[in-house]
Design brief:
- There is one protein chain.
- This protein is mainly alpha-helical.
- The protein has a domain of 52 residues.
- It contains 4 helices and no strands.
- α3 packs across α4.
- The radius of gyration is 25 Å and the shape is extended.
- 0% of the residues are buried.
- The mean pLDDT is 89.
Length: 99
């Protein structure tokens, strides 16, 4: 069994990494085929969306380095968050005016 690293070991190793430039780190690295998978369950749905909107979303997503479906999902999540905030604000205004 390998010896567990101490705080001093970690600091020494950290100092060694800090001495290297980004170019050295890249030169020493090796490519890998690791793929990160999001395991959260999702349900497929169908939406009818104009092709022009899909094309525009694809262009926007490409500029952000995302897939267009990921961007649509992000927009949906953001819209729902805003809706919840507005709903909460309306509720608190109603409560204040009733008091």
């Amino acid at each position: 069994m390998a010896k567990r690293k101490t705080r001093a070991d970690w600091l020494r190793e950290s100092d060694e990494w800090d001495k290297k430039s980004m170019e050295e780190l890249i030169a020493e690295s090796e490519p890998t085929d690791i793929k990160f998978i999001d395991r959260r369950p999702r349900k497929a749905i169908s939406l009818r969306i104009d092709e022009a909107i899909i094309k525009e979303a694809k262009t926007a997503a490409d500029g952000m380095g995302l897939g267009y479906q990921t961007l649509f999902r992000m927009w949906l999540i953001e819209g729902l968050r805003r809706h919840r905030e507005q709903k909460s604000e309306r509720r608190s205004k109603k409560t204040r005016s009733a008091a």
